Amino acid sequence: MKIPLTKDYNFGSSRILTCRIPDHKNWINVISKEINNRREKFRYSHKINGRWENKYLSVNEVPSIRLPMRLARDLVKGKWNISAVVLFEPVKNFHNQLPPFWFNIMEKGEKTGIHDHAKLANFSAVVFIQCDQDSGDLFFTQDSEEDFSIKPEMGKMVIFPSSLKHGVHLNKSFQKRISLAFNLFPFPLPNEEW
């Protein structure tokens, strides 16, 4: 796979990396068809403000998610010299048995509150599948720092430390904002019950 051009940002003590998925227009067509053809198989984890926050499918139902997940792993190693593990299946013994990747589908007027993924992962990533300029920026927040925002662009991937607090501003667009999110795990994986 061709490694794309990247852009690094420093936000407080954290580093954030962005790039475009190679051949992102084709990849978006493929992942969009996979999602649309499997909507009835979505699994859910939790509701916030009446909306299912995360929607899950198995890797067999959306095999094209492998491309950005492997790319993120390779970029973390190549740019930051940190080895990470990509998992496509649910983590054994983890309470909900959901895959370590999910889709966030936001209608107009919806947003995602501030949170992190620090419990298990060391890096997290978001890939924008459907969005426009009013879809709601991905933003990061830290004590004593002004929030840092990234505009959604189709095919853009954002990689960041899992402990970094983040959220999504209000979707003011008339179209759905669809993104893929996933975690990368420490290498080697901890030998403990998760």
Model description:
By secondary structure, this protein is α+β, with helices and mostly antiparallel strands. The chain has a single domain, classed as Jelly Rolls, CATH 2.60.120. Helix content is 15%, strand content 35%. It contains 2 helices and 15 strands. The strands form 4 sheets. Strands 1, 2, 7, 8, 10, 13 and 15 form a 7-stranded antiparallel β-sheet that branches. Strands 9-14-11-12 form a 4-stranded antiparallel β-sheet, with no helix packed on it. Strands 3-6 form a two-stranded antiparallel sheet. The radius of gyration is 16 Å and the shape is globular. The model has no long low-confidence stretch (mean pLDDT 89).
CATH superfamily: q2cbj1_9rhob like domain
Structural class: alpha+beta
* pLDDT averaged residue by residue: 89
Order of helices and strands: EEHEEEEHEEEEEEEEE
Q: Give me the CATH fold name.
A: Jelly Rolls
**Backbone shape:** globular
CATH class: Mainly Beta
CA-based gyration radius: 16 Å
The largest sheet is: 7 strands, antiparallel
CATH architecture: Sandwich
**Tally of strands:** 15
